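Q: Can someone sanity-check these two? First one:
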Amino acid sequence: MNQISHRDSFRQPVFGADMRRQFDACYPEQAQLFDHDLRSHELLTLEALAQLGEAMPQASVEYNPGDLPVGIRPEDVPDNGMAIGDTIRMIDQSASWAVLKNIEQVPEYEALLLSLLAEIRPILEAKTGQMLKPQGFVFVSSPGAVTPYHFDPEHNILLQLRGEKWMTTFPAGNARFAADEIHEGYHTGGHRNLVWQDDFAAEGTRHHLTPGKAIFVPVMAPHFVQNGPEPSISLSITWRSDWSFEEADARAFNGWLRKRGLTPKAPGRFPARSRTKALAWRVLRKISGQRQ
């Protein structure tokens, strides 16, 4: 692949002044649609992404058939019978969904990721503190592909680059859409996919993503994605914060308490903090590690 330096990744900002104002108003708790100016990039063509997928460790690649129900269980997701490179190169006819995880493992893609995050870093750090653990993910989807109902532990902006899709989001931290026990299980090694109920659909917010549109998705906000009639490429730029790590550790500690017959109170959403429970979990984890 062509080498690209951090300095030369972009000549013009990808996130304009209007986007940055909107991001400042919604971050960190409200899903929001924005405009962006990343319409094409040599590292984000199908061939470049196929080569990236073939070069990445197996643990950094996930792909499966795209014609899945919104609420499929993790253990029921089948294999698509193809290699990752072929899945991406033939995405228009492979009826698949693929994600390349932690693209920052490759220097060229790390430069791309950091260039984008640099544009919004002052805004996010003013609210949630130091930007931690920047990560990038690329999603390549066949026409009509579905990303099942799930949540993610990162602050996330998804940029649509090719094709169109509809993302339906639900309020983060609302136990109706993801029970406390599911949060606790996820943060102690469970799957990100969630239990879907058909009556949820009417309560979600549906966002239409086309090339030049991006969406901010809050930490642990349940969502699912339906791809449009053409192949889709999306770039997800994510980061963590002290607040998000505290929330995760407090959830894990609550799971530990629940297994011992207690009914712990769920952590509050931002700006509430969960320092005491987070510290308790970190101590327990350290003690457990020392015993192994």
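And here is the second, same format, sequence then tokens:
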Amino acid sequence: MGAQLRVYKRRIRSVTATKKITKAMEMIAASRVVKAQRKVAASTPYATELTRAVTAVGTGSNTKHPLTTQAETVVRSAVLLLTSDRGLAGAFNSNAIKAAEQLTARLEAEGRQVDTYIVGRRGVAHYNFRERTIAESWTGFTDEPSYADAKKVAAPLIEAIEKDTADGGVDEIHIVFTEFVSMMTQTALGDRLLPLSLDEVAKEAKPAGEILPLFDFEPSAEDVLDALLPRYVESRVYNALLQSAASKHAATRRAMKSATDNAGELIESLSRLANAARQAEITQEISEIVGGASALADATAGSDR
């Protein structure tokens, strides 16, 4: 019985140590998600005004630009998948990967070739394990992405859409990321990044009822698009990276809180089992003492006769 009690005590110490670790990780994730939320909020005004400028150029001219004109026949598509470098975030990565696989399956069903670009070690590991082709990947910055990281990711995508499909280019770019809705809700979604749907972008870029101003473009609308649209792609990728980072930290916080609560419940259960084992051990010792005393009394009484 003493050996069983030692086992319970050893497990209680182990689970207590794990609980301290998960609690610390929960607190770290809580502080990081606040910083990530602030970055998302700070990036919104720039993205909004840039979207307004792009919309003004696109709707205010008849220029056919490869970044705003839908190809008559889409042959090749690019899918950018945003995951994290680390796990311990519940279903965060699996939901994003599932959304990307569903999007890829839909595009392939429409007869398109798909080039996959991945951010984050979890996504890269998933595709490498299944021996799937990755056009390009980036790792090491998913927890705290910077605008320089977004430019690094956006550069090959812009280069690909500016090329002809015969030379390895793509006709459109999709992005799959996890949108931060609230601390309790994060949604994996896919969105077409390029070519732009100017009607939809115009609705997002201006309040209801507001008329976009007319502009004269110098030296030409096409040159302005050449300058603005790469910045637009970078800002969209940057915002998606920030959204994914905030979502990941929120998911980690929730997962670690659940792990901490489960550890506490397990400690209580093990403590009850340890108390029961200790009580059984004490009861057995008392029974042995009483039995021994009774046997000694009987032996003494027999010798007296």
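A (reply): Looked at the second one. The mean pLDDT is 82. Residues 221-304 form the longest helix (84 residues).
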